[in-house]
Recover the amino acids of this structure.
């Protein structure tokens, strides 16, 4: 099939077959007066047959090939047998390419020592054996360089894969954090709005027969609160839109604080608000957190304090933002162990390394005070 890669085993098999044939042709065409043809033929057959082991045990194959070279020199064979040299080059390259560094070096030393054994037989053969040693060292070095390059490439691939895994884990962690933040946002908005709607529904039920106009006003307030809740949900879910979607509606901040206080007033809570200092230039994250803290604190007043008056103070003092919500309701009973209101407030304050103090007031009621550093990091 076009583009299909040929297996290395097939390539090696074809190479061995070709060298076996060429080696035998070369051995049997040597002048018999130079060396015994049978000995040369056997040496060439051993060397070419050893190539079959080059992918599994290249060190054994290389030793057999060099041993064949030494046997040829011991028999005073011709100085150059091309087939033996080719086998030596292939096995030396395989030793450097396949074997680990230490084992590869030890094999090369063994090959050099084996070649030196042939040098000791007769000085007249030394030039040929020295040439053979060089012919073994050069391909071994080339194989070693290729192996080092492959190991380096493999290491880079592993690092890239590891970074991809870490990137996916960070993305999953970011998704989990975002889902938690969205869950808190929805809890704050829905909890606040539902509490006000329940309060208004109760008020409408009480005055439905005696004061129908007041009941109608309460029902209208429920409708207004429901619309505000839907708008808030749209803002939060707008954060999840894709980049090619229309621009999402901005999330609320302290700029919407008067509207927030007014929604509680329409729900029947007596609430006063004081703003001290400039709060329109706060970071968007801080402004959103402050808005939610005030919203959750007032929602807790509606849920747990009973008939009460709430005082809200938002002040920018030096390098921190101070949020105070105090009521004159049931005092310590405002703490609901099973609820998530104060937990959500605590998490938002902790996100900016702020401080939160909550508890009953000495004069009755309950107070929440949060301090958010404006110079800190989330």
């Amino acid at each position: 099939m076009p583009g299909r890669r040929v297996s290395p085993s097939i390539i090696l098999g074809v190479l061995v077959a070709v060298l076996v044939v060429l080696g035998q042709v070369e051995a049997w065409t040597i002048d018999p007066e130079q060396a015994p043809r049978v000995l040369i033929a056997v040496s060439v057959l051993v060397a070419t047959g050893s190539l079959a082991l080059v992918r599994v045990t290249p060190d054994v194959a290389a030793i057999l090939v060099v041993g064949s070279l030494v046997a040829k020199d011991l028999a005073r064979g011709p100085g150059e047998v091309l087939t033996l040299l080719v086998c030596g080059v292939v096995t030396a390259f395989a030793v450097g390419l396949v074997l680990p560094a230490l084992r590869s070096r030890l094999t090369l030393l063994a090959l050099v020592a084996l070649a030196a054994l042939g040098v000791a037989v007769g000085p007249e053969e030394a030039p040929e054996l020295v040439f053979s040693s060089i012919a073994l060292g050069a391909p071994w070095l080339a194989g070693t360089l290729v192996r080092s390059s492959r190991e380096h490439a493999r290491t880079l691939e592993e690092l890239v894969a590891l970074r991809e895994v870490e990137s996916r884990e960070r993305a999953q962690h970011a998704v989990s954090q975002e889902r938690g933040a969205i869950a808190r946002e929805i809890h704050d908005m829905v909890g606040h709005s539902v509490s006000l709607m329940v309060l208004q529904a109760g008020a409408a039920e009480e005055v439905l027969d005696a004061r129908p106009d007041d009941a109608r006003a309460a029902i209208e307030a429920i409708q207004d609160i429901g619309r505000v809740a839907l708008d808030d949900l749209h803002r939060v879910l707008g954060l999840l839109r894709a980049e090619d979607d229309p621009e999402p509606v901005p999330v609320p901040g302290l700029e919407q604080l008067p509207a927030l206080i007014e929604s509680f007033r329409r729900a029947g809570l007596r609430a006063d608000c004081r703003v001290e200092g400039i709060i329109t230039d706060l970071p968007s994250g801080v402004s959103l957190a402050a808005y939610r803290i005030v919203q959750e604190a007032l929602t807790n007043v509606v849920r747990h304090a009973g008939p009460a008056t709430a005082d809200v103070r938002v002040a920018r003092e030096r390098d921190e933002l101070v949020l105070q919500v105090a009521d004159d309701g049931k005092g310590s009973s405002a703490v609901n162990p099973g609820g998530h209101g104060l937990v959500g407030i605590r998490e938002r304050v902790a996100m900016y390394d702020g401080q939160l103090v909550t508890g009953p007031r000495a004069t009755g009621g309950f107070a929440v005070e949060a301090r958010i550093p404006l110079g800190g990091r989330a």
Q: What stands out?
A: The CA atoms of residues 331 and 365 lie 4 Å apart. The chain has two domains: 8-160, 267-378. DSSP finds ten helices and five strands in the chain.
